[in-house]
Design brief:
The structure holds 2 protein chains of 2 kinds.
Chain A (H helix, E strand, L loop, with lengths): L18 E10 L2 E11 L4 E5 L6 H9 L6 E6 L2 E2 L5 H6 L2 E3 L12 H10 L16 H14 L14 H13 L5 E5 L7 H14 L5 E4 L3 H7 L2 E6 L2 E6 L1 H6 L1 H11 L1
Parallel strand pairs in A: 3-8, 3-9, 6-7, 7-8
Antiparallel strand pairs in A: 1-2, 1-4, 4-5, 9-10
Helix pairs in contact in A: 3-4, 3-5, 4-5
Chain B lengths: L1 H9 L1 H8 L1 H17 L4 H28 L7 H16 L5 H23 L5 H19 L10 E2 L15 H24 L1 H11 L1 H6 L4 H27 L1 E2 L6 H14 L6 H19 L3 H15 L3 H5 L1 H4 L6
Antiparallel strand pairs in B: 1-2
Helix pairs in contact in B: 3-4, 3-8, 4-8, 4-11, 4-12, 4-13, 5-6, 5-7, 5-11, 6-11, 8-9, 8-11, 9-11, 12-13, 13-14
Classes of the chains: A alpha/beta, B mainly alpha.
The complex binds adenosine-5'-triphosphate and magnesium ion.
The site of adenosine-5'-triphosphate has 12 residues of chain A, from strand 2 and helix 1.
C-alpha cells in the first residue's frame, strides 16, 4: 500500500504533499496516544482517518492544528515546518479545523459566529470603533457560507438554540468562510440526521477537488463515498494507509477494526 | 438569503435607541444636577455626584474586562491609584497643566497595564485573579513607602491642576461638567469598543478561547489591548479623583477598592449596555443613603448586596431589560 501515497489521486501524477506529518508522537503519562505517526495530505484529496474510540484521532488533529505540542516528530504545511507554530498562526496560513464536540460561540447568533470566522481573514481585527455587525462584507461572506451548508434560515437565532445537527453544520460553515487551503474535519457527521449527513457528503464531495481535507469519521458511508485514501489508526499507531478498497481488504485492518463492524 | 439580513438591518434603529435609554436618561439628569443643587446643600450634592461619576468611569473600564472579556481583574483599583499618584506627584512638583498631567497619567497607566497584563494574561481563572491582586498590592505598598510623597498617610495637594491655564477644575461646577464629559466619553468609547471587530473577538474569547484561537486570532494580544485600554481609563478616573479631593492616598489602590469595583460591576450587570454605569451610581447612592440614616449601615448594606446579586441575576441591567429590550447576556 506504500505505492499509493506518492500519487496525487486527483491528477494521477507525482505531487508535493500539502500537509506532511512525520514521525509524530505524543504521550499522556503512560499512554502513547500518538505513536510514530506519518502520513501526507495531497492537493485535491480527501484523506480519511478512521479508528476505534480512543485510538488517538482527535489527539492527532489537536497536534496538527496546534492545540497540543507533539513530543516528537514534525508537521509540514505548504512547504514550511509548522511544528512549533502557534495554533492561531496555522489557521491564518489556511490550515483550518473543526471540532468533534461542537465548539461555537453560544452567546452569538449563528450569523455572528460565521462573521467572526470571516473576520479572521478579512483585514485587521484591531478595529476599535466601527460596528462589526454592520460590515456587509463580513455578513455577506457569512451568509454565503451558511447558504452553502443550508443553514441560512437560522442565521439570526442565537447559536444556543440550534439543534445538535445544526451546530455541526455551523462548525463547517465557520471553517469554510475562512477560505482554507486544507481542512481538518473531526467527525463532522457525528450525531447529525440522515438527511443532513447526505447533504454534508454532497457538499464535501463538491469541495474536495479544490480543498484537500483530512476527514476523521466513524460513519463508514461517509468515509467510503468521500475518501480517496484511508488511514487506520489503532492505539495511536497507523496500521494501514491506502485506497478504501485496499484498506478494506487488509487482513490486519479487518482483524483490528473493520472486522467487528462486519 | 438577503431577507434575513435586511430584517436585521431595519430592526436595530429603534431597538438601539431603546437600549440606550437608561444611560441617556442618567446623563440628562446628571447634567441638570448643578442647577438643581442650588436649591439645597450645593457643595455636598456636587461633590457626592462628582465622586459617583468618577467611580462610574472606573467601573465602566472594569466592565470591559470583567463583563465583556471574562477577565476577573482583582487589581483594578491600582490603576485608579496610579492615576491619582501621578497627578499628585506632578502637582506637588509644580506641574499643573491638566493636559501634561493627563499625558503622563495615560503613559504611566498604559505602561503598568502592558507590563502587568503581559504577565497576568498568561494565566487564567483563579490564577489571573490572584496575580492581578498581587500586582495591585505591589503598587499599594510601593505608594505607602513613598515617604517623600506622604507615605502611608497620603499626600495633600496644595495646588490644583489647571485646564488651559484656567481654574475651571478648581470650581466644583466646572469640575462637575469636566467629569460628566469624561464619563460620557468613557461610556461611548467602551460601548463602541464592545460592538467593534475588536470587541467581538474579546467577547467570543470570553466563552470559548480555544475556538477563537483556532479561527486565527491571537487571543492574548486582544486581551492585552483590552487590559491596557481599561487601565488607561481607570487611570483617568484616578486623575479626576485627585483633582476633586486634592488628596491622594495609598488606600485608593487597596484590594478592598478593587473588590468594591467588582461588586459595582456585578450589581449593575456584567457586560450589559448600561450596567456598569447603573451599578456605580446605585452602589454609591445606596451607601450614602444608608450611612446617613443608620449607624451600623454596613450590616444592612452587605446583606442587601447579597440579596440583589442573588435575586436580580444579571444585575440592574437585567432588571431594566424589559424596558430596554436588551437580550440578557451569558
Ligand atoms: N489531555 C489528555 N490527557 C490524558 N489523556 C488523554 C488526553 N486527551 C486524550 N487522552 C487519551 O488519549 C487517547 C486518545 O484519545 P482521542 O480523543 O484522541 O481518541 P479518538 O480517536 O479521537 O476517540 P473518539 O473516536 O472517541 O473521538 C484516549 O485514551 C484518551 O483517553
Ligand atoms: Mg475524537
Amino acid at each position: 500500500m506504500a505505492l499509493f501515497w506518492r500519487r496525487s489521486p486527483a491528477s494521477g501524477r507525482v505531487a508535493e504533499p500539502l500537509l506532511q506529518v512525520c514521525g509524530l508522537s505524543k504521550r499522556f503519562g503512560a499512554l502513547l496516544a500518538t505513536d510514530d505517526v506519518s502520513f501526507e495530505l495531497f492537493p485535491g484529496e480527501c484523506h480519511a482517518l478512521i479508528g476505534p474510540n480512543g485510538a488517538g484521532k482527535t489527539t492527532l488533529v489537536h497536534q496538527i492544528s496546534g492545540l497540543l505540542r507533539p513530543d516528537d516528530g514534525s508537521i509540514h504545511f505548504a512547504g514550511s515546518d509548522i511544528t512549533r507554530l502557534p495554533a492561531a498562526a496555522r489557521a491564518l496560513r489556511g490550515l483550518v479545523r473543526t471540532f468533534q464536540i461542537s465548539s461555537v460561540i453560544d452567546s452569538f447568533t449563528t450569523l455572528d459566529n460565521v462573521a467572526l470566522a470571516a473576520q479572521a481573514r478579512h483585514g485587521s481585527s484591531f478595529r476599535f470603533l466601527a460596528r462589526a455587525d454592520r460590515e456587509t462584507a463580513l455578513n455577506d461572506a457569512a451568509m454565503a457560507a451558511l447558504a452553502d451548508v443550508g443553514l441560512e434560515h437560522r442565521a439570526q437565532v442565537p447559536a444556543t438554540t440550534l439543534a445538535h445537527g445544526e451546530k455541526r453544520v455551523l462548525e463547517l460553515a465557520m471553517a469554510l468562510v475562512q477560505k482554507p487551503r486544507a481542512l481538518l474535519l473531526d467527525e463532522p457527521m457525528a450525531g447529525v440526521g440522515l438527511e443532513e449527513a447526505e447533504r454534508l457528503i454532497t457538499l464535501l464531495n463538491r469541495l474536495k477537488s479544490e480543498l484537500p481535507m483530512l476527514l476523521v469519521e466513524h460513519d463508514m458511508q461517509a468515509v467510503f463515498s468521500l475518501a480517496d485514501r484511508l488511514s487506520v489508526l489503532v492505539y495511536g499507531r497507523l496500521i494501514a494507509t491506502g485506497t478504501p478498497e485496499a484498506v478494506r481488504a487488509d487482513p490486519e485492518v479487518r482483524a483490528a477494526y473493520l472486522g467487528d463492524a462486519g | 438569503m438577503h431577507d434575513a439580513l435586511e430584517l436585521a438591518a431595519t430592526r436595530p434603529q429603534s431597538a438601539a435607541l431603546r437600549s440606550y435609554a437608561p444611560a441617556l436618561l442618567i446623563f440628562v439628569v446628571l447634567a441638570l444636577v448643578p442647577p438643581i443643587a442650588l436649591l439645597g446643600p450645593e457643595g455636598y450634592v456636587l461633590s457626592l455626584t462628582t465622586r459617583m461619576m468618577i467611580l462610574a468611569i472606573a467601573v465602566i473600564s472594569l466592565d470591559l474586562l470583567l463583563g465583556h472579556s471574562g477577565l476577573v481583574s482583582f487589581g483594578h483599583a491600582a490603576f485608579v491609584g496610579l492615576g491619582a499618584y501621578v497627578t499628585g506627584i506632578l502637582i506637588t512638583e509644580g506641574v499643573v497643566d491638566a493636559f501634561t498631567i493627563l499625558g503622563c497619567v495615560v503613559a504611566a497607566s498604559a505602561l503598568f497595564a502592558l507590563v502587568t497584563g503581559a504577565v497576568s494574561l498568561r494565566t487564567s481563572g483563579v490564577y489571573f485573579i490572584m496575580i492581578t491582586l498581587a500586582f495591585g498590592q505591589m503598587l499599594y505598598f510601593a505608594a505607602s513607602s513613598l515617604s517623600a510623597y506622604g507615605g502611608d498617610d497620603g499626600l495633600t495637594l496644595w495646588n490644583n491642576a489647571q485646564l488651559l491655564g484656567t481654574g475651571v477644575l478648581d470650581d466644583p461646577r466646572g469640575l462637575f461638567y469636566a467629569v460628566l464629559a469624561s464619563l460620557i466619553g468613557a461610556f461611548v468609547l467602551v460601548d463602541r469598543l464592545k460592538g467593534s471587530r475588536f470587541g467581538r473577538v474579546l467577547n467570543a474569547a470570553k466563552s470559548n478561547p480555544t475556538r477563537v484561537t483556532c479561527l486565527g486570532f491571537d487571543v492574548f494580544r486582544f486581551r492585552l489591548a483590552a487590559y491596557v485600554i481599561a487601565g488607561v481609563l481607570a487611570g483617568l478616573a484616578g486623575f479626576l479623583s485627585a483633582v476633586q479631593t486634592e488628596f491622594v492616598s495609598p488606600a485608593t489602590m487597596s484590594w478592598h477598592r478593587s473588590g468594591e469595583l467588582i461588586v459595582m460591576v456585578i450589581l449593575g450587570g456584567m457586560g450589559s449596555r448600561n450596567g456598569a454605569l447603573l451599578g456605580a451610581l446605585a452602589y454609591v447612592g445606596l451607601e450614602e443613603l444608608l450611612s446617613t440614616y443608620f449607624a451600623h449601615w454596613k450590616l444592612i448594606f452587605g446583606p442587601l448586596l447579597v440579596l440583589m446579586v442573588l435575586y436580580a441575576k444579571g444585575g440592574l441591567g437585567a432588571v431594566l431589560a424589559p424596558l430596554t429590550g436588551e437580550r440578557p447576556r451569558g
